[in-house]
Amino acid sequence: MTDDDAAPADAEGRRHDRIQHHPTPGPRNSLQYWTDAKPVWRVMLNYVFVLVARIAPSLKLRNWALRRIGVTVGTGVSWGLEATPDVFWPELITIEDDAIIGYDSVILCHEFLQDEYRTGEVVVGERAMIGAKATILPGVRIGTGAQVAANSLVTRDVPAGETVAGVPARPMSGGEADGE
């Protein structure tokens, strides 16, 4: 049984229900054909703005750079240094008002696999917090006020107000979430 098999039966908790599947057009793995999926010039331009978003000293400048590549960025978003949005499909990322994206975290909207590649929108809810070095996979929704602990791998939705941690990320019990 995989982690996603253990997810709730409803669509709210299953990122795979929201992911689009794109078959590999030839005999090699899907990454070999990335130029069929996205124009080279677009990925290169995205990469330049991703670099600005990663290293700019100003939150305002980081958010500006993210918006230039199609990320939906709410008011008061804090994008941490070295945090990386998806370079291929940044337009699939939505970060709602006052969310915090921690230092060196990664938000992915694609998965290149052997026989296909997958894409899925990622939504980080209002006042949600993504800890340092966390990785969010395609199709995941982080609810309003939810918290993702540092170094976590988020493979499924995080309900509003919940705190998750680990690889893969799981809900924290009351005592653990409070640092006890």
Automatic annotation (TrEMBL):
UniProt key word Transferase: yes
**Which molecular function term from Gene Ontology is one that the record holds?**
transferase activity
The region called Disordered is annotated at 1-30
Keywords of this entry: Transferase
The record's annotation in InterPro entries points to:
Hexapep, Hexapep_transf_CS, Trans_hexapeptide_repeat, Trimer_LpxA-like_sf
Q: Does the keyword Transferase apply?
A: yes
Could you identify this protein by its name? Answer: Acetyltransferase
Upper classification of the organism: Archaea, Methanobacteriati, Methanobacteriota, Stenosarchaea group, Halobacteria
